[in-house]
Amino acid sequence: MNSHGSSLKGPHVNNGGGPVTFFIRGHLSDSAVKKGSFLGRLRHFIDVIDPSTLFVSEKRLKECVKLLDDYKHGELPPGVSDLQLWEAQKIKQAIIHPDTGEKIFMPFRMSGYVPFGTPIVIGLLLPNQTVVSTIIWQWLNQSHNACVNFANRNATKPTPTSEFLQGYVGAVTSAVSIAVGLNVLIQKANRLSPATRMIIQRLVPFPAVASANICNVGLMRHSELSEGIDVLDDNGNVVGSSKIAARHAITETAFTRVVLPMPIFVLPPIIMSYLERLRFLQSNRRLLLPVHSLVCLVTFGLSLPVAISLFPQMSQIEVSSLEPEIAMATDCKVLTYNKGL
After folding, report:
1. Comparing C-alpha atoms, which of 239, 252, 246 is closest to residue 324?
2. Cα angle for residues 172, 175, 181 (degrees, 5° grid)
3. Neighbours of 198 (CB within 10 A)
4. Cys-Cys crosslink for 220: which of 121, 149, 175, 179, Cβ 3.0 to 4.6 Å?
């Protein structure tokens, strides 16, 4: 099978379950365009974060994996449709880690990021935060982020538990310190009107979370920088371990973690400051929290696929920019690596 065409139905599946090239009745599908097309990646990641995959049973997952394995080995049962193959690939990609081939724990899958993360976002954006409540919500947020980063990392090399704990402590400490520091500064800003102070306080979580997210990704995946990550040739064979590719992977992931909270922590406070002035909500104050929660949920749900689509998960890098020993070990001009999510 090559990129110039094929008569095969359904997806071409790799062993790890990560993003691969698909062919449908001789046409190159959008999965192959993902590397260069933002819209192609967006369509892919909308599937990956589909919360319905959280309810897939163990039996159904095994059926999907078997179906894809049968297709890969040319043993596909008669009557299997393209749609069944696409659905099987969607389920496998949402649940199985592409490097380890193991299930990702439900709350830490990308499909669980919005359902499990939204309550924390709502808590972070609640008005009139105290120092204690700020610490608690920032701790919960970075704890969840740390586990998501670790669960979706490039896992071609083992990560010691000690490094996981160091990253976790560093991320939580940075988030709490920044958030508390900004809150204290705002409270001391006596020149600001109460309304202005409240709006600014609501916006405090963004710089705190964005800076902490950078620390979180860097610290949780620090071992990749010291040991490198596997880079693959056109046939999926490991050429070597590259620290340069690891830097690219972590930088790209960290950038997405800055973009992700931008709309989540900026838009809801602005929207709520307008909605709270509506006569209907002023006379029905008990609806403020449900409306606030809905605004956070919608914003989070729209932001996540956009942020993680900025770069392909299986990224490519020119051999000429990698370590000399890797360049000498292959004739390929471009190699592939798992950026992580």
Report:
1. 239
2. 130
3. 16
4. 149
Q: Give Cβ neighbours of residue 293 (< 8 Å, ≥ 6 apart).
A: 118, 122
Q: At 221, which amino acid appears?
A: R
- Residue 279 Cα distances to 220, 274, 283, 284, 287, angstroms: 47, 11, 6, 9, 12
Give me the residues paired with residue 197 across strands. Answer: none
Helix/strand/coil for 228? coil
Residues 6+ apart with CB under 8 A from 196: none
Cα–Cα distance measured from residue 245 to residue 317, given in angstroms and rounded to the nearest whole number:
7
d(CA 309, CA 311): 5
Torsion from C-alpha of 190, 194, 195, 201, nearest 10 degrees:
70
- 229 beta partners: 242
* pTM higher than the cut 0.85: no
What integer pLDDT is reported at residue 16 of this predicted model?
39
Summarised one tens digit per residue, pLDDT across range 75-104 is: 888 888 888 888 888 898 888 888 788 888
3-state helix, strand, coil in the chain (%, to 5): 65, 10, 30
In three-state secondary structure terms, 96 is strand
DSSP collapsed to 3 states, 262-321: HHHHHHHHHHHHHHCCCHHHHHCHHHHHHHHHHHHHHHHHHHHHHHHCCCCCEEEEEHHH
In this structure, what are the phi and psi dihedrals at residue 237, rounded to the nearest 5 degrees? -85, 140
pLDDT surpassing 70 at residue 306: yes
What phi and psi values does residue 96 have, to the nearest 5 degrees? -95, 135
